[in-house]
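Practice problem: predict the structure.
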Amino acid sequence: MLTNYIKIAFRNIWKAKLHSFITFTGLSTGIACCLLIILFVKDEWTFDDFHSKADRIYRGWTYENYGENETFFNTVTPYPLGPALKDNYSEVEDFVRINNLNLEIKVGEDSFNEQVTVAGQSFFDFFDFESILGKPSLALDDKNAAILTERMSQKLFGLGNPIGQNIAMDIGDGQRLFTVKSVVANMPTNTSISFDIMISDLNNDVMVSERAMNAWYNVNPETYFLLTETANAEDIIAKTPALLKNALGENYVEGEYQIGLQPLLDIHLNNEMPVGIAPVSDPKYAYILVAIAGLILLLGCINFVTLSVSKSINRAREVGVRKVVGARRNQLMSQFLSEAVVTAFISVIIGLFLSALSLNLFNELSGKQLLFEFDAVMALSVILLLVVIGIISGSYPALLLSGLKPVSILKGSRSNAGNKQGLRRALVAIQFVLTIFLISTTLLMQDQLSFLQSKNLGFDKEQVIVSQINVEQSGGLIERVGKGMESAQLMLNELDGKEGVVTAGAANHTFGSGGWTNVGFTDTQDNYKTFDMLVTDAHFIQSMKMKMVEGRAFDQNNLSDGRRAVIINEAFADAFGFDDPIGKQLPGKNFEDHEIIGVIENFNYNSLHAEVEPLLMTMSPGIIFPGIENVGIGSNPFPKLFVRLEANKLQEGIASMKTVWEKVTNGEEFEYDFVDQTLATQYSSEQNLSKIVSIASILAIVIGCMGLFALASLNMENRTKEVSIRKVLGASQSLILTMLSKEYIILILISLVISVPLTLYVIDQWLASFAYRVEVGAGVFALTGGLTLVIALITISYNAIKVSLKQPAETLKYE
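Answer:
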């Protein structure tokens, strides 16, 4: 019996080639989208779970609250935090600190600028990374040892064995040699903890000052804790106020300074916590992708159901004959469900092929490196898709067809089979709603992204390259920044007048790289205040074409500016209540002698997700640091060189820059980024999401149009005699076309009304993360509705015109 059902299923699929093609296209496309999204979601939700102790590993955080808008919340922590928790609480088995440094490294005569990870000796007791050569855990006990990944080993030493080879790094008081003692496998894509070069934190004695190692208000490394199997993180945190009171002494006020523990498995998808060294993903993007895949699959299922219901008229006589010869309803249902399962099975096979074929494109759009592996998760997903499509989507057509009355059918009545207009209209309306929703969402996302790219940021980002100046990892922050500025000045002197170079300047932070140096102090009224700080040279403001709204910019010829001048932005003046700030000082107790010489127009140095914060610019950080109590550094704080190039001489300018760089640095590797490209990468996830939604919109339009075409062809075929009678009675061609199209026009208008609030809600949730956003107007919905209407009319016009042109004599000759 089952074999017979399958034979009939294939026979019917082959008989209705066009409708079968449309059904398979819609379903297989939806299945392919679902399978790709399943790979993505699996990767996101399994971050870090390959570590055997993952459920016992926690990352420390600190939170300081000194009043409204005066808070520090960091997942990089003070150096004393690790030893303090381990020494005071038996539930803490061990801790490890992790920090990243951008260093110049040398292998023989070759120089490279690389990120070097500094980690504690127990790093490989916490985290499970595959060892290829040597023993990495033992290497971290050696102050002069280095650990490489396979990728970095091949970059530095080729395909040979790197064990025993030397790498020179500029740390401490000068260049030091590190010997490669171990090589580990390349980092997996689903890890929050990643590195390419690692050295032991035994080197902190020459890289971190004694004051920083004991300071509770200076945050730098990430600190991870391994708890015992029976430990409860909340119980540990509940006991920390006593520890903090002992550590901070009279400075401690309960509730102002807090520490906490975040589970390792919570880091990747928790964007409510500040971003530290470990990257964080917004979980809403996974949900959005799941929703998009579901929508595409739903469109395919709707095509399947609507075509099955519409074709019920053509299969009514078959059902009637089968019932007359003794077929029971459950047998008929089994037959039609078998056909649905066969359709679903073929669609799944095609969907698997399409998903594997599209994986590279999807990886490019999602920024992942996913692999198509048919594991337990994928097998379960395929089974669920078969059930959803074959059983659930096929149930209604099976119930409908098996319930037809044989007497009515064989008499020629279509009331049982053909008058399911309400369901058909509802399904078509749902298709239109989803299509309009996807199109309007795509247009609004594109509007926002265009706005982000074109908004005036308060400086000129075009034709500007930025290069990181390497600084020896010795001394305090002020000393290192000073050394970097000295190197920058040498380069600026050399660049003057070089071909392709317009202007150049230096600053210790770059745009779009994350948080700038944030400092806090207690003012003369005992109120805690915070602001961001940027150390610049005298040329930076002019080079970036920033606008002064009061006072003046730094002057290289004014020696006083290099010792005591500061410039604030408008947000700083507003936050500190300065009506006339020129000539005034910060309201702190311990700042060195200084003077505000100018107010600069607000410029967006962070992404447009956030408002502009109070900012102070100075050429001499030494006048600020004595008066501050807290320092938070969200990005590399060491000086960078900013060079504006002539628009038509970019290559000449870069060549000039490279020549000067190699001369001043004695052959260091020259690397640079364009500022506008760096700024654009801040919105890469939004851009990728927009591309995915755009592709989904195109797929929705194609699937919807194919279904609409097939549905219209069946509908028009069933109305052929009605049209002929109307023509005999004098109906014009235009009137008939209007009659045949009116139903779809009404459905589109209803769908537009339904989709507008849905689109507004979803896009408002997405735009809520931007401090600067476009206004959503009626124009986009008018455009979307008009576009959908045109597409729908073009889709159905062929069948409508074909039916309206038929001669009544041909269609009515058998009546």
